[in-house]
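Objective 1b of the project was to move from sequence-level analysis to a structural picture of ligand recognition. The entry below was assembled by the postdoctoral researcher (A.K.) and checked by the PI before modelling. It contains the amino acid sequence of the target and the SMILES of the bound compound, magnesium ion.
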Amino acid sequence: MMGRTGGQILIKALEINGAKEIFGVPGESYLAALDALYDIGGSIRYVTARQEGGAAFMAAAYSDATGDPGICFVTRGPGVSNAMIGVHTAQQGSTPLILLIGQIPSDHRDREAFQEMDYRRTLGSIVKWVAEIDDPARIPEYVNRAFHVATSGRPGPVALALPENMLFATSDTDDLPPAKPTPACPSPEDLKTLGTMLENAERPLLLLGGTCWTKAGHQAVIDFVENHDIPVAVGFRRQGLFAHDHPNFIGNIGFGGIQGPNEYVENSDLIIALGARLNDGTTLKFSLIKSPVPQGKLVHILPGAEELGRLYQADLPILADPNQAALALTRLPASRQHSTARQTARTAYEHMRTLPPQDGPVDMAQVMAVLNARLPRDTTVTTGAGNAADWPNIYYDYRRFLGALAPISGAMGMGVPAAVAAKIAHPGSPSVYIGGDGDFLMNGQEVATAVKYNLDPVFIVIDNGMYGTIRGNQEVKYPGRVSGTTLSEVDFATVAKAYGAHGERVENTREFAPALERALSCGRAAIIHIIVGPEHLGPNLTVSKTGQ
Ligand SMILES: Cc1ncc(C[n+]2csc(CCOP(=O)(O)OP(=O)(O)O)c2C)c(N)n1
Ligand SMILES: [Mg+2]
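Corresponding predicted holo structure:
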């Protein structure tokens, strides 16, 4: 019997496990898998990116936007090297990502063959699991394990190397049923203890973070905080976990957060951290919540036993899937309301988010006001890294569940591919990137991917002609000694046109609103190039004010 090729068995196993999109750059190493996609009839789409860094970021962002594992397919050595930024970002962001690698033929292994790389060593410290498949008959087993490992415990990236000859070889092996999720539930005793702690708290806080949230889990969170009227904050770059216009929301904390909610966290006597690892980004380098022993009481709920007790000695560590935990929390009797604490924290949040007019040719405070008023609730907003990302991070009213896509790793270059991925995940909803001139060009080539797939994200580029974040730090530590931080002038509206996208140039505040209207309604990808001038360093920050 002829059987199926390794490529066919692989693609079938991905389909059985629910894969809908594969983000990649092709290589001759995995032609057999590409060929199997040709036959599968559209149930899985292969999204051809322009660079593996873009593809890996798209896969990670797709996962962050949907809660499903992201899948990225790249070729060996050079392809993997490019993709590593997305894999590292998935690790730091607890994002389930499956990296498939077209590998050199097995009979050339260990000769430093053309493009050979030892994935166990190069990827070993940034993935949860890496393996190479030698026998096509075992593909279903390895693929199921990849889905299981990526999504269970603390979610994260895994990698499978697929030797070229193995993908061409045939086997008559059977398919397996899909990997089964194993979400842990909190025990009744732990819930009872948590209920008593909440009853006795004066300034409680629910702090949300983590990945793989479901709509049901999200709704349970809303029900729980409304039942008890307790304040909710989200961790570093987790703005998509709670609508910012909800009266119980008091802000995102940590790096890129604002003072009001940070103060509430420092003085809270009970933090229920649900899904949040409480990393240095969320805790402002462990200052808002002292590590290893917090100043107030801490209930730490995480899906991975290995993470509980790693950064914090919680009063009540609970090993549970955040969705299951949230559902359990809705069953706690609401005997005490915390309305005063909640109202005070909410008022502080609203007050601290009010922006004065900003210096420069374009007032970014007004730009943010236009975006908040104009963009519908179902908009996904994406960013990369740098001060420019603080505009959305702090001042955009995120309202869509999982509608904030940004790198927990602080990697520049995620925002552009993430905006493309958001359009693939939610074609009917707007997707808007907001980032700096430096960040945009780290993966600006993926605008071409948006054009290829007829997607219409809007890319807003805040151009100060420099790596402003680093320049700002330079001005503080080495005033007036500018070194390595300036950038050349790029006409991004013209770049847009060259890609087949719509381009707008905004040189003063009043030009922004009509430019946004045209970008949102043009029916194709669009770049809005905002010239903020060489003094601009971010919210309330200019070169001249730095160091004063
Ligand atoms: C991949 C990567 N390289 C370098 C850095 C360091 N870095 C952080 S912010 C930044 C500058 C960002 O410039 P831009 O996007 O123009 O925004 P601005 O700071 O000017 O607002 C750099 C170089 C990083 N975080 N990620
Ligand atoms: Mg810049």
